[in-house]
Design a protein that fits this description.
Length: 195
């Protein structure tokens, strides 16, 4: 049986709702009454097939079977609902502005691979050497990667600073980085077009 990696109900947070997951093997094969034995109670035989498929679903969603049965079936119900009922999906999309393109993990991965290739020749040489590595996954040109590298270093530094300081220190730092809260831009807006 080919297994498709299950999605967590929270894995779709921040992304658009997707279609139902792909099932495989017995989970896509309907219960065929013609293949059931002729003797015995038909309802009981169908119920046995349904129970087998429920256990396959539990296995498909990788639900821990060591937890109490009520929790197993509650987890299964939640996973099925989030995959098949639109009202259970989590959708948190930003309405305006550019989407953030680099997560902290992406920033760290880029900085790590470039730093591993650093020599005394400079950042451009390190990026060029890093681009030749098999772990390289950013398809951009050197000047673009250089800008992303500098942004990534700043993002990591800010994250580490904010995670290691008090709320007051963090708020003061954010104020210096981004300006006071609720303060309008001091840039003069005009309707004139530049000549």
């Amino acid at each position: 049986m080919v297994r498709v990696a299950p999605k967590s109900p929270l894995a779709s947070a921040g992304s658009k709702p997707t279609e139902a997951p792909e099932y495989s093997g017995p989970l896509v094969t309907p219960i065929d009454l013609r293949k059931l034995p002729l003797e015995g109670d038909l309802k009981a035989l169908v119920f046995e097939e349904i129970i087998k498929k429920i256990f396959l679903l539990i296995d498909h969603y990788q639900i821990d079977t060591a937890i109490p049965a009520e929790q197993i079936f509650l987890n299964l119900a939640c996973r099925l609902a989030s995959d098949h009922v639109p009202g259970f999906r989590i959708f948190n999309s930003r309405k305006r502005g550019a989407k953030p393109k680099w997560t902290l993990d992406e920033c760290r991965a880029l900085v790590d691979i470039v730093n591993a290739n650093k020599t005394r020749k400079g950042l451009k040489a390190a990026i060029t050497a890093a681009m030749k590595q098999p772990a390289w996954r950013w398809n951009r040109k050197v000047p673009s990667i250089e800008a992303r590298y500098r942004e990534a270093v700043h993002t990591i530094q800010r994250f580490e600073f904010l995670s290691n300081c008090s709320r007051e220190q963090a708020f003061a730092a954010l104020k210096t980085w981004y300006g006071p809260v609720g303060k309008a831009s001091t840039r003069k807006r005009t309707t004139e077009t530049p000549r």
